[in-house]
């Protein structure tokens, strides 16, 4: 089962996406280069409009984006030599690198106050090839899971960009929405393999006879676990934010919750942390459609005395927090700091 092809947990019907207009195979596309002339009937030379223009725009000021900016223009069909083909490939790679750099620059400026401008910047990018689309999706995804505080903003950006689509090499249509969902699913499913790998590493550490080697393996294992934990938790937070933007469905949330609450590991620390983060993010909206009593009964059982010695205190507090949040109708209460007067 999964996000995109699970039964009965299927994606809710969405509006059909517009087809990508097909370009004639005899007119390869290029980004407009400086000095390129417009139709002679206009009697003027166009201002230099290259992909560099975006980099020079300040995200601090509102700039009206012309719909023809960064447009692609066809060149005259002609026979090309090997050197010309090589030159075209190099130019395309350079343009792809520049798009990559621009996306990074825009994401570095993202904040709640400039989201409308950020979205305009993204929509102005020449994301017209599968490589550029995949690169853009990868960068947005990494931003969301590595910096959890930006997950809501990245989800909002995904909502605005979800209909962007291009033709892939096999002739199929690839969309921003499908790619971002696929990224989330891949990391969520990868956790299963990582759990097995972690168990093997623990066995290797315990069987090591050399104290120095054992210490080295232990440190390496702990560092790797911290990195994996951060990505797993960040992914679940992002999945929740995508649900709030109606990119993911309630059935997919239930699929994730069931998988996290039934992890068959001795001490399911990371799955429980992911579950708590996911429930805090989607609980209020999800309970409008589904009853989560069974899930919370299992969470309460995990905090019972029989499990106290197995569940770390940090995770028990997280579980209790989400239980309290649900009891309060998903309204966060300010934490009260009690100071000892003695």
TrEMBL record:
Superkingdom: Eukaryota
Assigned GO CC terms: eukaryotic translation initiation factor 4F complex
Domain MIF4G: 100-329
Organism: Aphis craccivora (Cowpea aphid)
Cited InterPro entries: ARM-type_fold, MIF4G-like_typ-3
Molecular-function GO term, any one: translation initiation factor activity
Compositionally biased tracts (Polar residues): 7-30, 38-49
Record key words, sorted: Initiation factor, Protein biosynthesis
Record-given protein name: Eukaryotic translation initiation factor 4 gamma 3-like isoform X4
Region described as Disordered: spans on this chain: 1-49
Gene3D superfamilies: 1.25.40.180
Lineage of the organism: Eukaryota, Metazoa, Ecdysozoa, Arthropoda, Hexapoda
Pfam families: MIF4G (PF02854)
